[in-house]
Amino acid sequence: MDIGIIGGGSIGLLFAAYLQGVYEITLYTRTKKQADELMQLGLTLKSDGLSKIKKVKVVPIFEGIAKHDLLFIAVKQYHLHEVIPLIQDPEIPLVFLQNGYSHIKMIKQSALQEIYIGVVEHGALKHDNTTVEHTGLGVTRIAAYSGKLKDFPLFQREISMFPFKAEKDFQEMLLNKLLVNAMINPLTAILKVENGELINNPHFYLLFKKYFEEISNIFEIENREQVIDHIEQICLATSKNRSSMLKDIELGRKTEIDAITGYIMESAIERKKPYEMTAIIYSLVKGMES
Ligand SMILES: NC(=O)C1=CN([C@@H]2O[C@H](COP(=O)(O)OP(=O)(O)OC[C@H]3O[C@@H](n4cnc5c(N)ncnc54)[C@H](OP(=O)(O)O)[C@@H]3O)[C@@H](O)[C@H]2O)C=CC1
Ligand SMILES: CC(C)(CO)C(=O)C(=O)O
Q1: Which atom of ligand 1 is nearest to the CA of 123?
Q2: Which of 131, 162, 239, 289 yields a CA-CA distance of 20 to 30 A from 152?
Q3: Has residue 150 got a pLDDT over 90?
Q4: 195 in ligand 2 pocket by Cβ < 6 Å?
Q5: Nearest-angstrom CA–CA distance, 239 and 248
Q6: Measured on CA atoms in the order 152, 158, 160, 163, is the torsion positive or negative?
Q7: Is 177 labeled as catalytic in the residue annotation?
Q8: Long-range CB contacts for residues 153-159, cutoff 8 Å, separation at least 24
Q9: Domains and CATH numbers, the chain
């Protein structure tokens, strides 16, 4: 089977490293420079203190996207508007891997026909153009947006350290991940702390709980105890992590605040729910970004 992956960042490189060898992989990068470096040096995967080099076919995206049996989209939310129009064949089965929720609106408006939504629970960190580190072993959850889940090809073969799991409801799956990212990412970015500090510092924990009240009211979450326990578990399991939004701010990069907190604010307005804390958090991150 022939699989394409768009985006040579943390997630695109991680997917290419694990899937190459099991499938025929083509990785599409934004620049020719990265494509040349990867073709010359190979792709290095660091995991558990070990390094492996994989030979992967890499093509700069401006040369065009070929026909594939499956195409993963591993760019940030805010690059989707550039990437979606480059997909000329509306019949290629696609998997969107973005955090947040705003890609669903874009997908709805597109002519694309067979779409799967993915939620990545692995940690990945790109060191340079040819090296990625697997910083947290997780799972990739896949739900059908259009198309049939039973037809999703990657459930048929197990890949060591890189499992895929089927989920029935893409909305529930994405909302669960959205809540995790909405609670952890902006708060850690504003407070400039590792994830565990949101729970371990009693002052930050009060803020965390107060913010959860607002978000759970916006989405009318019923099993609140269970949901907040799950988010706290993730904070503790990743307690030494600097969240992706904190890293984006530290490196002077654009964040995914619009797709995460911006989406929550839009939902609050639609549902006529109070969203004062969400609005403050949104403005603080936007202000730090600019
Ligand atoms: N990193 C992680 O651990 C996790 C990330 N995610 C989600 O996965 C998504 C991707 O994240 P991540 O990999 O970390 O992001 P990165 O910023 O590391 O990678 C995004 C990549 O997309 C490339 N890109 C941008 N525009 C284009 C284009 N027009 N054509 C081709 N490539 C393009 C960028 O290229 P260039 O570098 O040249 O600009 C970059 O290499 C995000 O939505 C994130 O929230 C989810 C779970 C975990
Ligand atoms: C789960 C979490 C919060 C881990 O840091 C994450 O997904 C991120 O940083 O984007």
Answers
A1: 3
A2: 131
A3: no
A4: yes
A5: 18
A6: positive
A7: yes
A8: 153/1, 153/69, 153/70, 154/70, 157/22, 159/18, 159/19, 159/22
A9: 2-167 (3.40.50.720), 173-289 (1.10.1040.10)
In the set 126, 150, 177, 273, the catalytic residue is 177
ipTM over 0.95: yes
- CB 11 near ligand 1, within 6 Å: yes
Centroid of ligand 1 to alpha carbon of 96 (angstroms):
11
Q: What is the mean pLDDT of the chain?
A: 95
Tell me the two tokens of residue 202: 């009693």
Long-range contacts of 155-161 (CB under 8 A, 24+ apart): 157/22, 159/18, 159/19, 159/22, 161/18, 161/47, 161/134, 161/137
pLDDT in tens, 209-232: 999 999 999 999 999 999 999 999
Give 148's pLDDT tier (boundaries 50, 70, 90).
confident
Determine whether the shortest distance from the Cβ of 117 to ligand 1 is under 6 A. no
* 276: its two tokens: 């004062």
> What is the reported pLDDT for 200?
97
Q: Whose CA is nearest to atom 7 of ligand 2?
A: 181
Among 6, 32, 34, 75, residue to substitute to test ligand 1 (most atoms within 8 Å of Cβ): 75
Nearest atom (ligand 1) to Cα of 77 = 43
Q: How far apart are CA 181 and CA 245, in angstroms?
A: 9
CA of 123 to the centre of ligand 2 (A): 8
